[in-house]
């Protein structure tokens, strides 16, 4: 008999495909339910899987047998149950396969190779330069993916798929990067390119979306259904999780919080519009603020640190000098903190999240940013919306997106069983 039990929020990250209708879909949903239960509760007995999923023990056993034949699930008969007799516990097999996560940033490429339980086997993060062409950067990423595939082979692991995060608007269904303003890329069919190059399933998405997914799967938001992830590299990106699912909007372009207009008389944004939020709070905004302030308040120690040229100043340096007490740098970071807090308060009023996770370049300045952002949000947003709100900085630092790229592959496998 086929059963269909709708997964709980924590058991599946995206229920887009959980539509009843035919037996194949029911079978997929049930397999997905069981795989996600094993992911979240390893090690777990068949009876516990049945209890957690609401499926009958017969259905659970049948599906587990198939998953074991597929090499995705192990059973361990050595552990004793609480009632004293041997119990058979199940879990996902680390050697169930290899997953490759990729992030192409504005000035770097990250590639991460993991096993089936998302343990890192190999990783690389390399700088790119604005002088590199789109083809050159994609070729560079492909070389790293080739290396990851070789290492997976050396580990005896079959590759399951490639996930990739990009800094722009992505049509997830088509696997097409529509536009990446800060990279100056347009209409790049990356999924097709890499499907043809690697003959593997390829998933591409916006970097902030994948970072949010990474925090759910492997980070600070694993038990939170309503949260917003904010990240800044050059621009400002957001990933919005509602009811444990990534909010994408009608065509996948939702969540572009960096381009909310906050100052119609402000600076020109990379998107071509004026006064977007990211022009107030991104690292570029901080550098601009410091340079402007320097015009009226000469700061010799700052100039010396930049070898006499403020164009050498980086966001990391501003944070460092701010922490060391440099007034201009500290004021610039504090101004960003207030602007971030005011904007986040609007998001809190709209989405009523339980958690805000701040990642990317902001993490370096968290000692200054955290308390000011928190204070601004709690004094600006409507009070009932902040009753259960926590503000945290990502613990994954620069890894969040590439982990999310791994998570999106695993999520799809756990959800759809795309492998042969
Ligand atoms: Zn913009």
The small molecules bound here are: zinc ion
Class computed from helices, strands and strand pairing: alpha/beta
Give, in order, the helices and strands. Answer: HEHHEEEEEHEEEEHEHEEEHHHHHEHHEH
- Largest pleated sheet: 5 strands, mixed
Total count of strands: 16
Radius of gyration from CA coordinates: 23 Å
Count of DSSP H/I helices = 14
Which sequence of strands runs across the widest sheet? 6-5-4-7-11
Q: What is the overall pLDDT average? A: 86
Helix-residue proportion: 40-55%
Give the overall form.
globular
Terminus-to-terminus distance: 24 Å
User: How much strand?
Assistant: 15-25%
Low-confidence stretches: 1-20
Model description:
Helix content is about 40%, strand content about 20%. The chain is built from 14 helices and 16 strands. The chain has helices spanning about 25-40, 45-55, 55-70, 135-155, 190-200, 205-220, 280, 285-295, 300-305, 315-325, 325-350, 365-380, 385, 400-415, and strands at about 45, 75, 90, 100-105, 110-115, 120-125, 160-165, 170, 175-180, 185-190, 200-205, 225-230, 235-240, 245, 355-360, 390-395. Strands 6-5-4-7-11 form a five-stranded mixed beta sheet, sandwiched between helices. Bound molecules: zinc ion. Zinc ion (ZN) binds next to loops. Zinc ion binds near residues 269 and 276.
């Amino acid at each position: 008999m086929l059963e269909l039990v709708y997964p709980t929020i924590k058991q599946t990250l995206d229920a887009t495909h959980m539509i009843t209708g035919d037996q194949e879909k029911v079978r997929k949903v049930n397999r997905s339910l069981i795989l996600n239960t094993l992911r979240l509760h390893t090690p777990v007995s068949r009876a516990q899987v049945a209890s957690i999923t609401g499926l009958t023990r017969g259905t659970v056993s049948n599906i587990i047998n198939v998953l074991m034949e597929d090499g995705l699930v192990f059973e361990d008969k050595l552990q004793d149950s609480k009632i004293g007799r041997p119990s058979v516990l199940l879990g996902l097999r680390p050697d169930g396969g290899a997953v490759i996560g990729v992030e192409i940033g504005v000035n770097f490429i990250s590639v991460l190779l993991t096993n089936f339980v998302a343990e890192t086997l190999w990783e690389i993060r390399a700088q790119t330069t604005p002088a590199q062409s789109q083809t050159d950067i994609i070729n560079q990423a492909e070389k790293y993916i080739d290396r990851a595939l070789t290492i997976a082979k050396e580990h005896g692991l079959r590759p399951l798929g490639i996930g990739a995060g990009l800094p722009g608007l992505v049509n997830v269904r088509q696997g097409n990067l529509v536009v990446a303003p800060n990279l100056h890329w347009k209409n790049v069919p990356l999924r097709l390119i890499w499907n043809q190059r690697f003959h593997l399933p390829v998933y591409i998405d916006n970097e902030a979306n994948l970072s949010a997914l990474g925090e759910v799967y492997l980070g600070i938001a694993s038990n939170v259904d309503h949260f917003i992830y904010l990240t800044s590299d050059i621009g400002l990106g957001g990933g919005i999780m509602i009811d444990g699912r990534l909010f994408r909007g009608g065509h996948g372009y939702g969540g572009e919080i960096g381009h909310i207009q906050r100052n119609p008389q402000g600076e020109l944004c990379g998107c071509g519009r004026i006064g977007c939020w990211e022009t107030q709070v991104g690292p570029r905004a901080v550098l601009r603020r410091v340079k402007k302030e320097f015009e009226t308040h000469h700061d010799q120690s700052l100039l010396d640190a930049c070898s006499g040229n403020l164009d050498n100043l980086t966001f990391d340096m501003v944070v460092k000098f701010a922490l060391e007490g440099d007034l201009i740098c500290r004021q610039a970071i504090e101004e960003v903190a207030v602007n971030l807090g005011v904007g986040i308060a609007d998001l809190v009023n709209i989405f009523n999240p339980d958690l805000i996770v701040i990642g990317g370049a902001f993490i370096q300045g968290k000692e200054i940013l955290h308390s000011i952002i928190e204070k601004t949000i709690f004094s600006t947003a409507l009070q009932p919306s902040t009753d259960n709100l926590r503000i945290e900085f990502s613990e994954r630092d620069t890894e969040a997106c590439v982990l999310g790229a791994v998570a999106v592959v695993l999520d799809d496998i756990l959800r759809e069983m795309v492998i042969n």
